[in-house]
Each structure stands twice: as structure tokens, then as C-alpha cells.
Write a structure and sequence with these properties.
By secondary structure, the protein is mainly α. It folds into two domains: about 240 residues, MetI-like fold (Orthogonal Bundle), CATH 1.10.3720.10; about 150 residues, MetI-like fold (Orthogonal Bundle), CATH 1.10.3720.10. It is about 75% helix and about 0% strand. The chain has 25 helices and two strands. A two-stranded parallel ribbon has the order 1-2. Helix 5 packs across helix 13 and helix 8 crosses helix 9. The longest helix has about 35 residues. It is globular and about 75 Å long. About 45% of the residues are buried.
Length: about 550
């Protein structure tokens, strides 16, 4: 009787691709601050939900809602109207104004707020001129609108953010076919009717997307609403955390902000999904611009020039005037130290962000596993999350980890390394990477999508590794997109204020925090050199944006 020996079956473990694993790690790092905010809010060390609901939260919510809706409506009206005029009519200065209307993007809203108050305050040039003309002696002799108010905050934010709506609406109007306009004209529909019944409905998805971006940016704003003494959810995070020293309460307010942002993103996606339009004509013809003459043409010029003047000329002119009159501040060592800090953290963050975006997109592109593909779209939520929210989500868990590591090293070696992550610019760079990761990822995704997979297959058949394919095939073809993404991320890092205020190390200034600090002390002359540098960097991004949208 023979016994047959059987060899036990080998258990084959799934092969883990380093590209897939790396993509998952990057996605986890980007999503960590968002998840930690909800975790801290759900399990705070000191639950102040009842106190917040009974006292400040309703005021924060109401003011945030008013600012958000006001900015959305005003920026939507201004951006859509300007886009319709420059895309449908030919009037004096149209060619210049078509691109000048993008320049307000170079002015951070908080800089616009400082400039507006300086221009309109009691000692400013407007009220001084009024008193000189009419012989008024004091503020009791005349009425002047309240400058530091929620209405002024909405006006300033709209003047800075309407180009988002303008750019998307202009592209949507450009892409519309002349056949729809001709049908409307054959039915004796006037100019306003063609706009209201044809042009606007067809461009509505783009307009709604632009308004949603403007509304999300208004939620993120801290410098403007703080300067105008408007208590919003973002200022509430600073107040509860830094003044009341309650991190759990700050996380609870931050979770409310995140829910608002998610709601806005969902509304924007739903509106775009329900509004789909297709050009059924085999030969697409753009709508020709109608030449305008006389007073109506100059009214169109004025209508387009006013948003540009308010959003760019006024703040840039005020800041430039102060920068020239207070030239001694240009020699301040603290200014150039802040500039160096900005260059270092912004440059490092932009390189890491774009590199991680390229790695993630490439890892997902070559991966056959579903999880990385599912996570890639979710990683863009950091761009919608306000900087103050990311500050809460990064600093609290990172400080706990930092203290744990420092205590462990102290206990094992007797040497205290200090706070390596939160005591340096590490947390600030991480916040920038998470906040602007969508830019690097989006640029890499768009660039790789234009490259044929056959090139990669050919390189692999010649014995190239996946890393060599990325370096020798993909990178040379997407070098321009990578450079553009680096510049855009760097510019956004330079302008970012809320996250920088929360996460910067002690006595560590950047250009944005220097502008905020000096302006908060009512020293606009001291803030103006740093503000001019921020505006100059912003102009680089606007120039790149205008070039890409010719």
C-alpha cells in the first residue's frame, strides 16, 4: 500500500507595485488633514458645541452665508456681463479690456481691503477732497458710507474674484455657435432676449462653476473679513483656537466650513450634470462680434473698465503710491527676510506638490488596481478646503506626533530634539502641498492625457523601466505643463494668508503675513513694499493664464 505525498500549495502574495503604493501614500497625506478635522470635531477633549450653538455659531454662519451669497451673485453678474460684452460686441478698447479684466486676480483680496479703506477713510483723499470742495469741517457735517462693513467686504471680495466667472463665461460664450443666434434673430428676438434666452442658458454650467469658485474663495478669506471686523466661520476658527485656546472648538467650526464647501462642490457638480448642451451642427461657426459706435459703444467700454479699475487700478495705485512715498521700508531687513522665507517655503512646496502630482497621476495611469483610481479625484478637495481648516487639520495631529517623538528620543537618549515638524516650516510646506495639490495633479493629468500610451509601450518593449519611461518619455513632452504648474502653485503659496498665520513658526514672517501684520497696525506704508512684491508675483500667474486662454 503506497502513500502518495502531496506538496502543499504555495500561497502567492499579491505583488505590490511601488508606483501604486506611492500613489496611495500621497493620497493619504493629502486627505489626512481633512479627515483629522472631522475626527477632532467628533471627539474633542472639550466639547463646546452647545456653547457655540447658543452664542457665536449662528452669527458666524449668518455672516458667512451673507458674504458667500453676496460675493457669488455680484461676481457672477459682473463677470458674466463683462464676458458677454467682450465676446459679442466690438467697442473702443475691447481688445485691451478683454485681457485687463483678468488682472484683478493678481491682487489678493486682503490687499484690496487695505487699499480701499486707505482711499475712502476720513483722512483719505476722497473725504479730504469732499471737505475741501464743500467746506465741511468735521465728520458731523456730512454723511459717508461705513467703510468697514459686511457690504464693503462683499464689494472687495467680488472685485478680486469676479475674473473667475469672467474667464469661464467668456470661454463658454466663445464656444457657442452662430446658428443659435441666427435662429433667435429670425424670431425677432432683441439683444437682451438673445442674452437671456440663448446665451445665458447655454453658458450656465460655466457661470455656475465660476460662481462656486468665487464663493469658496470667499469662505477661505481671512484678511479681508478680519480687517472689516466681519465675524465669519474663518475668523471664528482663529478666535476660538488662538484666543480661547480651544483646539476642539476650532475643529468643530472647521468641520462646519468643510460641510459648506462640500455642499458648494456638490451643487456645482449637480448643476453641470443636469445642464448638458451639444453642438449638432457639422460646421461650427463662432458668433461674430457686432461693431458698436456712438454713446452706446462708450457705455460698454465704461461698463468693462469699471470692474478693472476697482479690482486692479485702485488697489495697485494706492499700494504703489505708498511704496514710493515710503521708500525707506524697502531697505528694511525684515522685508527681505520675509521675502527669502516666502521664496524658500513657496519654492519647496511648489516642487514637492507638482512632483507628487506627477507621481500620483503616473502611478494611477500604470496601475491596474481600482483603489488608486478612486482616490485620485478625492485628493483635489484640498484646493476647496480653506487654509484655516487645513491649519487645524495639520497642526493638531502633527503637534501630538511631534511631542510623542521628542519625548521618546528624550527618554531613550536624554537629548531633546525639540519640535522638528511644528517648530519649523515643515507644517507650512505640508499645508501648501495639500492646499494646492489639485493644481499639480490637474496639470499632470491633462499633460499625460495628451500623450499616447503607445509611446510608453514602445519604450517598455525596448527594456526601459517605468521610472525611465517617466523620465525619458513623459517628462520631455509635459515639461511646459510642469513649469506652468510650478509657477501657479508658487504664486498661490505667496498669496496664502490663513494657513500661513496658523502654521508659521514663531517669529517667521512671509510676505503675506508681513502685509497683514503691518496693515493691522494701520501702517500701510510699511505693508506696501511686501504688498507690491505679492502683486508682482501675482501678475506672473495672470500673464501665464492669459497666454493659455488666447
Amino acid at each position: 500500500m503506497s502513500v502518495t505525498e502531496t506538496t502543499p500549495a504555495r500561497v502567492r502574495l499579491p505583488r505590490i507595485s511601488p508606483w501604486s503604493a506611492g500613489a496611495l501614500v500621497i493620497a493619504a497625506i493629502v486627505l489626512m488633514p481633512i479627515l483629522s478635522v472631522f475626527g477632532i470635531a467628533l471627539f474633542p477633549s472639550d466639547n463646546i458645541w452647545p456653547h457655540l450653538i447658543a452664542t457665536t455659531l449662528p452669527r458666524y454662519l449668518a455672516n458667512t452665508g451673507i458674504v458667500m451669497v453676496g460675493v457669488g451673485l455680484l461676481s457672477g453678474a459682473v463677470g458674466t456681463g463683462a464676458a458677454w460684452l467682450v465676446s459679442r460686441y466690438d467697442f473702443p478698447g475691447r481688445r485691451w479690456l478683454e485681457w485687463l479684466l483678468l488682472l484683478p486676480l493678481a491682487i489678493p483680496a486682503y490687499v484690496g481691503a487695505y487699499a480701499l479703506v486707505d482711499f475712502l477713510e476720513y483722512a483719505g483723499p476722497v473725504q479730504t477732497a469732499l471737505r475741501g470742495v464743500f467746506g465741511w469741517q468735521s465728520a458731523q457735517d456730512y454723511w459717508f458710507p461705513q467703510i468697514r462693513s459686511i457690504g464693503a467686504a462683499i464689494l472687495v471680495l467680488s472685485g478680486s474674484l469676479f475674473p473667475y466667472v469672467y474667464l469661464l463665461a467668456r470661454n463658454a460664450f466663445r464656444e457657442q455657435s452662430a446658428s443659435s443666434e441666427e435662429v433667435a434673430q429670425s424670431l425677432s428676438t432683441g439683444a437682451f432676449g438673445r442674452f437671456w434666452r440663448v446665451g445665458l442658458p447655454l453658458a450656465r454650467p460655466a457661470i455656475v462653476a465660476g460662481m462656486a469658485i468665487a464663493m469658496m474663495e470667499s469662505i477661505n478669506d481671512f484678511g479681508t473679513v478680519d480687517y472689516f471686523a466681519v465675524q465669519t466661520l474663518t475668523t471664528g476658527i482663529f478666535s476660538v483656537w488662538l484666543t480661547a485656546n480651544n483646539a476642539g472648538g476650532a475643529a468643530q467650526i472647521a468641520s462646519v466650513v468643510l460641510l459648506l464647501v462640500v455642499l458648494l462642490v456638490a451643487m456645482e457638480k449637480i448643476s453641470r450634470r443636469k445642464m448638458r448642451f451639444f453642438n449638432l451642427s457639422t460646421r461650427h461657426r463662432p458668433v461674430p462680434r457686432k461693431p458698436m459706435t456712438g454713446s452706446l459703444a462708450w457705455l460698454m467700454t465704461l461698463a468693462c473698465a469699471l470692474p478693472f479699475a476697482f479690482g486692479f487700478v485702485l488697489p495697485a495705485g494706492v499700494i504703489l503710491n505708498h511704496a514710493v512715498e515710503n521708500a525707506e521700508y524697502w531697505r528694511d531687513d525684515d522685508l527681505w527676510q520675509a521675502g527669502l522665507h516666502t521664496l524658500v517655503v513657496g519654492g519647496l512646496a511648489s516642487v514637492l506638490t507638482v512632483a507628487a502630482g506627477v507621481f500620483l497621476v503616473y502611478g494611477v495611469r500604470i496601475s491596474r488596481r481600482p483603489l488608486p483610481r478612486l482616490l485620485m479625484p478625492v485628493t483635489t478637495i484640498g484646493y476647496a478646503a480653506p487654509g484655516a481648516v487645513l491649519g487645524v487639520g495639520i497642526l493638531i495631529p502633527l503637534a501630538a506626533l511631534d511631542n510623542t517623538v521628542a519625548d521618546a528620543i528624550w527618554g531613550a537618549t536624554g537629548w531633546d530634539p525639540g519640535l522638528v515638524m511644528t517648530g519649523t516650516a515643515f507644517a507650512l510646506v505640508l499645508a501648501y502641498c495639500v492646499r494646492f495639490f489639485a493644481i499639480g495633479q490637474g496639470a499632470a493629468d491633462a499633460a499625460m492625457g495628451r500623450i499616447s500610451p503607445n509611446l510608453s509601450a514602445a519604450a517598455r518593449s525596448l527594456g526601459r523601466t517605468q521610472g525611465q519611461v517617466l523620465r525619458e518619455v513623459y517628462y520631455p513632452l509635459m515639461r511646459g505643463s510642469v513649469a506652468s504648474a510650478l509657477l501657479l502653485v508658487f504664486v498661490d503659496c505667496v498669496k496664502e494668508l490663513p494657513a500661513t498665520l496658523l502654521l508659521r513658526p514663531f517669529n517667521y514672517e512671509t510676505l503675506a503675513t508681513r502685509v497683514h501684520e503691518q496693515a493691522s497696525l494701520e501702517n500701510l506704508g510699511g505693508a506696501s513694499p511686501a504688498a507690491m512684491l505679492v502683486i508682482g508675483v501675482g501678475l506672473l500667474a495672470v500673464g501665464l493664464l492669459a497666454r493659455a486662454n488666447r
